[in-house]
Amino acid sequence: MTKASRITGFITIGLVPALVLYLLFVIVPIFWSAYYGFFDWKGIGAAKFIGLANYAEVIKDPIFWKAFKNNMLVVVASVFGQVPIAMILALLLMRSTLFQRMIRASVFMPMVLSSVVVGIIWGYIYHPQIGILNFMLDGIGLDSWKKAWLSDPKISMYALMVPIIWNYIGPYMIMFIAALQNISPEVEDASKLDGVGPVRKLFAITLPMIWDTVKVAIVLCISGSLKAFDLIYVMTGGGPAHSTELLASYMYNSTFNVYRFGFGSAISTAIIILSLILITGSQYLMKRDYR
Amino acid sequence: MNQVVLPQAGLSSAGSNKSKKIWLKGIKNVFLTIYALVTLYPLIWLFISAFKSNEEFYSRPFLLPTVWKWDNIVRAWKVSGMGLSLWNSTVVTVLSLVLTLVIGALAAYILSRFSFRLKPFFMGLFLLGMLIPVHSTLVPLFILMKKIGILNTYAALILPYTAFELPLAIFVLAAYLVTIPKEIEEAALIDGTGYWGIFFRMMMPLSMPALSTIAILGFLRFWNDFAFALVFISKPALKTVPLSLSAFATGYMTDYELTMAALAIAVLPTIIVFLLFQEQIMKGMTAGAVKG
Lengths: 291, 292
Known about the structure:
With about 290 residues, chain A is mainly α. In chain A, a hairpin with a 7-residue loop joins β1 (about 40) and β2 (about 50). Chain A is globular and about 75 Å long. Chain A has helices spanning about 5-35, 55-60, 60-90, 100-110, 115-125, 130-140, 155-180, 185-195, 200-210, 210-225, 230-235, 245-255, 260-290, and strands spanning about 40, 50. Chain B is mainly alpha-helical. In chain B, about 80% of the residues lie in helices and about 0% in strands.
């Protein structure tokens, strides 16, 4: 056997397991869901070809767009909730003393918990009769603020924002700390010599210097919002009356609760298309903005 | 006189500046401590409630239990079948990790060390996987697994876990392998070691730091996964921890002491792993999020 053919053989045998698994379980499903979107199928029995009917239904479906709007609400909450809180914490936690590292670990902690656990805990916090949030409002004399947090369709989506923000601050904070620590100490010295006050320093020097990281964080908020399924599923299941439905939970409910596999596949395809548009679009905008 | 007073004035103003700094630092630390406690409060509350009676769960929600009911944990363990779920989660997580590490490292070694025509295409293909929202593949994967008959088996979780972890594993490992000097490999080739020998006996041990990062992140991802388990597993005997917890909490919603105790058992493994590998987890998950 020649050396070249030995190398080719090694490359082939080495890549095949990764490629087969990856293609079969990650790439092929995308095309499958696009294909099954053309069928009316209950999960058992024969699938009936119905052309573009499922896709047309998705586009006209008010609940689908309601779910999309809720996904966008999660993005907004992440950009204006997670990012500023993470930034303030990062500015206060730049030194790596034992105390600071302990605080960082506490802020990060929710990230390693199963979202089922997080969902159940927050379900109890929001519980109308035995929830500690309503008990707390009682305790400080604000009983008029007491609500059925998760079962009132007007506020349930906003109530869900709190655990979502709480859960994901950690990685943003770590990103910002790394970026802040990368600012060279000469900048610090120069601003001290020029007598720049702390507030002006923050807005005129520090923030512009780590602006690229902030942009990355905003792109992450967008792609992260598409991943919020578990929490919603455990806490509200998308209800009441679809008020907390996200794209992923609507896809799940349409497929596995009412057994419309074709319609669910069409929603899956729509999710892929929407998320690719959102992610590439946001990256393009960010790049253009940056000279 | 003046000459004596002036430096003193300077000194005292520096002193007040210093005390102002100490005050600011104190306020900052108090704020941070309160913030951390508020963040951890749901978890603290969980661990306290796990030892309360049902009645105390709502009559004394913020206080410590009057009597610590340690047998809540024992009862929750028995009633929820937590032993079986922990076993299932362990099997699925360990097998997925082994598969991810071996297959991922092999692909990363080839993609970082050899040049061939299709290499840029394969790199692009694996990068694409990071843009695909996991949940959008649930329906087609369910159909696929039904067709090949692996629904309700360990494979229904192990294979997709590995497949979705591969892009991250390959990119982290490839970035690490590039830093290992080529001369080591050339010397081994001259000594007559084959590529498989180089991979298993040199590259795998040398890339231990990258492998351990992937292993820790993979552990958290596989152990905590809910969506795949929810869709692909319905047999009670195969339920993983998050899946059986969600079923348990729905069934025993009003038995607070049991639910809380079951939750406490379930979160303990990940909390221990986090406390052991904090720095690695925080850096790794952040890097994983940025790449993913």
